[in-house]
Amino acid sequence: MVVKVYGPAYASPKRVLLCLVEKEIDFETVPVDLIAGENLTPDYLQLQPFGSLPVIQDGDYTLFESRAIIRYYAEKYKTQGTDLLGKTLEDQGLVNQWLEVEAHNYHPPLLNLVLHIMFSPHFGIVRNEQVINESEEKLVKVLDVYEDRLSKSKYLAGDFFSLADLSHIPFTSYLVGPVGKEYMIKERKHVSAWWDDISSRPSWLKVLEICK
Amino acid sequence: MATPPVKVYGPPLSTAVSRVLVCLLEKDVPFQLVPVNMAKMEHKKPDYVKMQPFGQVPAFQDDDITLFESRAICRYLAEKYPNKGTAGLFGTNPLVKASIDQWLEAESQSFNPPSSVLTFQLFFAPLMKLKQDEALIKQNEAKLEKVLDVYENRLGSSRYLAGDEFTLADLSHLPNTQFLVEKTDKAELFTSRKNVGRWWSEISTRPAWKKVVEMQNA
């Protein structure tokens, strides 16, 4: 029985797909159309009561929240594929630290840019230039910290590619693509090198191929 | 007595700092609380920013590591001391652990944003003599109600969020909910929902949390 991942067209589920590819775990995808409201049907809400993407089904086991899902598989298959957690408890602490930074500092302003620039007028979003400008300012401050961190460390948690870096890939891909703000990455020498490195991993190219 | 190696930096009134304090107390891990005077911008000064480059509280140090982000610190403590204090905080097997992590992420992604805005607008802003934003309050109250409806349903069939035991997932909700229930007029968001109300009175009366509240009121 193979892991089912719901919502592959969208960015958060792609965190999960990336992890599964890195860990060499087989999976199937199940499309969910957000614009058609397929995430709000009773069947979907049984699986994910907040109506968000993704959710996975692994036999009888259901799990939601992409960062919980990737932690689960990275730990369950620690000795298979890429080690995404680091070797020691302290390495893992740093991975979780930067994963939290992504969740609380990086993601919220970037999500605003994505919603207002890419997805409005869907999902009740009315494009708001003030929100866009304030979000860009917030993201700039975060990227300045990343620039400093990545000048001292090849990847966010240390000298190894981890869940912390992986978690950034899908939404950053929106930032440099359809959101039209590639300069935010390119203008920063170390962030730019890090982005080039992580976005050229075979796993990301495979995920893009699957989700075409 | 020797100084405990664990140091937590930040004021106990900060929701993120109190999240770490309650975890340390649940785990019976001795610690030193190092004050950071945020009114004097101590969290933005070079010595502090060396530990926490975003200039946020808390920061955490033990013999082996400096860490920030309260939920990362809680996970680290639960992994490092699985058998100390409250043992089931992060589960005893991978499936249970992932279910706890799922609800910890739900707190982080769905509960925290609206409850933080409300806590800031209704408790901290008046304290800091800042103007409140009525539209923001209304918007976030509506968001929080939707989340609490999901919790009401979940807690109708489960004693705690992740199952029968108190875990990191429940713990993570203590700081914001304490302010909203005790220090604002929004208590009824929680108390008017039967299962959420029952859950709140169980988790908030745990000795470790009562100790943190004492530290906040000191």
UniProtKB/TrEMBL annotation, chain A:
Q: Which domain of life is it from?
A: Eukaryota
Reaction(s) catalysed by this chain's protein: RX + glutathione = an S-substituted glutathione + a halide anion + H(+)
| UniProt keyword terms in alphabetical order | Transferase
Give every GST C-terminal domain span: 88-212
Record's InterPro entries? Glutathione-S-Trfase_C-like (IPR010987), Glutathione-S-Trfase_C_sf (IPR036282), Glutathione_S-Trfase (IPR040079), Glutathione_S-Trfase_N (IPR004045), GST_C (IPR004046), GST_Phi_C (IPR034347), Thioredoxin-like_sf (IPR036249)
Q: Give residue ranges for domain GST N-terminal.
A: 1-81
Into which family does the record put it? Answer: Belongs to the GST superfamily. Phi family.
Instruction: Indicate what this protein is called per its UniProt record.
Output: glutathione transferase
What organism is the protein native to? Helianthus annuus
TrEMBL record, chain B:
GST N-terminal domain span: 4-85
Single GO molecular-function term?
A: glutathione transferase activity
E.C. code: 2.5.1.18
What does the entry list under GO cellular component?
Answer: cytoplasm
Query: Which branch of life, at top level?
Result: Eukaryota
Q: Which lineage?
A: Eukaryota, Viridiplantae, Streptophyta, Embryophyta, Tracheophyta
Task: Report the catalytic activity.
Answer: RX + glutathione = an S-substituted glutathione + a halide anion + H(+)
Gene3D superfamilies tied to this protein = 1.20.1050.10, Glutaredoxin
Q: Name one Pfam family in it.
A: GST_N
Answer yes or no on keyword Transferase: yes
Give the protein name, as stated in the record.
glutathione transferase
Record domain GST C-terminal: where: 93-218
> Keyword annotations for this protein?
Transferase
Q: Where are the transmembrane segments?
A: none
